[in-house]
Design a protein that fits this description.
497 residues; alpha/beta; 10-stranded mixed β-sheet; 19 helices; 14 strands
C-alpha cells in the first residue's frame, strides 16, 4: 500500500510540475520574427564557409568552421526546427503565399496575400492581432515595404502586384514603425508623404539614426539610395549614406521598446532571395551576413530583457537550388575564390557593363570566335569586379563566356534558344555566366532561377522558444507565435470589414 501511495504521489507531483510549467510559463513581451527570403540550409552553410575564409581560416577544416566567430547568430540559437514551405497548389511556393502562412496561419495560392486560396476571405496577421492587443508593431524589409513578404503583415489582396492598393492598406495600419526600402510604384517622395500623411517620413541617414535618441511613433524610414524596384541595395553595394539592416533594426527597437505591452517586430532580408534568383553567391552571402547582423541586434536586446524576449528566425523558401558542392570540384572547396568579388550582378550590370556595352556594341559581329578573348577591357572588368582571371579558366569555361558575351552584346549567339534559356534564365548572359563559373570554382552549384521546394530551418531563443523545435508546417509558425503570446486565438482569424 505504501509503495502504491508513493508511486501515486510521484506521478501527481510530475503532473503538477508539467502543468504549472505550462500554465505559469512566461509570456514574451518583445517578439522578433526574422525572415530570410530565399534562405535555407545551403545559404547558411555557404555563408559560414565564406565567413571562415574571410576571417583567415580554412573552410575545409572543421576546427575553423566551428569557431564561434565563424558561426552565424542564427545557427548558434538554442532551439532548432524545420518547416515545410509548400502552398495550397504548389510545392515551390512564392513569397506571397509563404508570408501569408507565417503571418496568418493559413495556406493560400501563390500570388495571394492575407486571403484564402479562393481569394474571397481575408484574415488578420499576427502583427494585426498584436497591435489590437496594444503592442507596438514594426515592419522592416530590405526590399520595398509594399513587397509580398512585408505586405502579409498588414494587407489582404488577391494579387501581390497590387502595389498601390497594398501601400494604401499599409498607410492605414497605424503601425508604429516601417523601415528599409521604399514604396514600389510610388517613386516620388512627395507622393509617399502624401499617402503616409499620418507618418513622419524620413529618408536621410542622420535623421533616421537620430531616432535612437529621440524615438517617435508612426515613422516611415526609407534608405537614401534605393538600387532597384525601390529596394535597398545589395549589402555588397551599400554606400556609407545608407543604413544597414542591423542599424534599421536598432532604430526600430528604440522606437518600439517604450511600450507597456511590448512589441512585435518583423524583419525581412529580402534581397537574399533576389541574389539567389540571379545565382550570385557572393551577393547572397553579403545579404545573409547583413540579415544575421540584424539578428545580432535582437540578441543584444535579449541580453537586456532575457525573460521577456522571443526571437524566431527562418526562411520562407529556398531560392536558386543552391548547393554546397559542384561536379567540377568534387569533395574540395575553395571559398577563398569568392573573396575578390566586390559588387553584385546588378551593380555591375548597371554600371561597368552598361558603359562597356555602350562603347562596344555598335557593329558587333557574333560570328567572330574571339570577341571576348580579344577584348582586354572586358577581361579586366571581369577580374576587377569578380576576381575571375580569364587565363586561368579551362577551354569549356572560356567558350561558355564567349557565347554569353555574344548574347549580351548583340542578342544572338551560336546556341539554340532552349540552351540560352537554361544557361541564362532571364538575366544578363555574360554576368550570370561569370557568377556561375566563379561559384562553380568555389564549389557552389545552382539548379534554378526560381524557388525550390525544400524544407527550411527554424531557429529560436528566449521565452517560449521551445515551441519552435521539431518538424512542422509553415502555417504552424503563426500559430506558435500566437500560442507564445497566449492570445487565446485559434488561427486563422477572419477580418471583419
Amino acid at each position: 500500500m505504501k509503495k502504491r501511495i508513493f508511486t501515486f504521489l510521484a506521478v501527481l507531483a510530475t503532473l503538477i510540475l508539467l502543468t504549472s510549467s505550462s500554465v505559469f510559463a512566461r509570456t514574451p513581451k518583445y517578439v522578433f520574427f526574422f525572415l530570410g527570403d530565399g534562405m535555407s540550409n545551403s545559404q547558411i552553410q555557404v555563408t559560414e564557409a565564406y565567413l571562415t575564409q574571410f576571417n583567415g581560416g580554412d573552410a575545409t577544416v572543421a576546427e575553423d568552421l566551428l569557431k564561434p566567430e565563424n558561426r552565424l547568430n542564427m545557427s548558434k540559437m538554442q532551439v532548432t526546427g524545420m518547416q515545410t514551405t509548400y502552398d495550397s497548389f504548389a510545392l515551390m511556393t512564392d513569397s506571397a503565399s509563404s508570408a501569408t502562412a507565417f503571418a496568418c496561419g493559413i495556406k493560400t495560392k501563390s500570388g495571394t496575400i492575407g486571403m484564402d486560396n479562393t481569394a474571397t476571405t481575408s484574415y488578420k496577421s499576427v502583427a494585426q492581432l498584436a497591435h489590437e492587443r496594444g503592442m507596438k508593431v514594426g515592419v522592416i524589409s530590405s526590399v520595398s515595404l509594399n513587397h509580398a513578404t512585408p505586405a502579409a503583415y498588414y494587407a489582404s489582396v488577391q494579387n501581390r502586384g497590387d502595389y498601390v492598393g497594398i501601400a494604401e492598406q499599409m498607410a492605414a495600419t497605424g503601425y508604429e514603425f516601417f523601415g528599409g526600402g521604399g514604396i514600389n510604384k510610388i517613386n516620388d517622395l512627395n507622393d509617399v508623404k502624401a499617402l503616409f500623411s499620418d507618418y513622419k517620413v524620413l529618408n536621410d541617414r542622420n535623421a533616421i539614426i537620430a531616432l535612437k535618441d529621440s524615438p517617435q511613433d508612426r515613422v516611415l524610414c526609407i534608405n537614401p539610395w534605393l538600387q532597384d524596384s525601390q529596394a535597398m541595395p545589395y549589402a555588397i553595394d551599400r554606400p556609407e549614406t545608407n543604413l544597414s539592416l542591423r542599424e534599421m533594426t536598432e532604430v526600430a527597437i528604440s522606437c518600439l521598446e517604450n511600450s507597456k505591452l511590448g512589441f512585435f517586430l518583423m524583419v525581412e532580408g529580402g534581397k537574399i532571395d533576389w541574389a539567389c534568383h540571379a545565382n550570385d553567391a557572393a551577393a547572397t552571402v553579403y545579404d545573409v551576413l547583413d540579415f544575421d547582423d540584424a539578428i545580432g541586434a535582437a540578441k543584444k536586446f535579449y541580453m537586456e530583457h532575457p525573460k521577456e524576449t522571443l526571437i524566431v528566425v527562418t526562411g520562407d523558401h529556398e531560392t536558386g537550388g543552391m548547393t554546397v558542392g559542384h561536379a567540377t570540384t568534387a569533395y574540395s572547396a575553395h571559398y577563398d575564390r569568392l573573396l575578390s568579388q566586390n559588387c553584385s550582378f546588378t551593380y555591375f550590370g548597371m554600371n561597368q557593363f552598361a558603359e562597356h556595352k555602350a562603347a562596344y556594341a555598335d557593329g558587333y559581329d557574333y560570328t567572330n570566335p574571339a570577341n571576348l578573348a580579344g577584348n582586354s577591357e572586358m577581361l579586366s572588368l571581369m577580374e576587377d569586379a569578380f576576381g575571375l582571371i580569364y587565363s586561368e579558366l579551362n577551354d569549356f569555361q572560356k567558350q561558355k563566356l564567349e557565347d554569353a558575351y555574344d548574347q549580351s552584346m548583340c542578342g544572338t549567339n551560336n546556341n539554340s534558344s532552349d540552351e540560352n534559356s537554361v544557361l541564362y534564365g532571364y538575366y544578363e548572359p555574360i554576368i550570370v555566366t561569370i557568377t556561375h563559373i566563379l561559384n562553380e570554382n568555389a564549389s557552389i552549384g545552382w539548379t534554378s532561377y526560381s524557388h525550390t521546394g525544400v524544407p527550411v530551418p527554424v531557429f529560436a531563443m528566449g521565452t517560449e522558444a521551445n515551441l519552435f523545435g521539431g518538424f512542422y508546417d509553415n502555417t504552424d509558425i503563426a500559430k506558435k507565435i500566437v500560442a507564445a503570446l497566449k492570445m487565446g486565438y485559434r488561427l486563422p482569424v477572419r477580418k471583419v470589414n
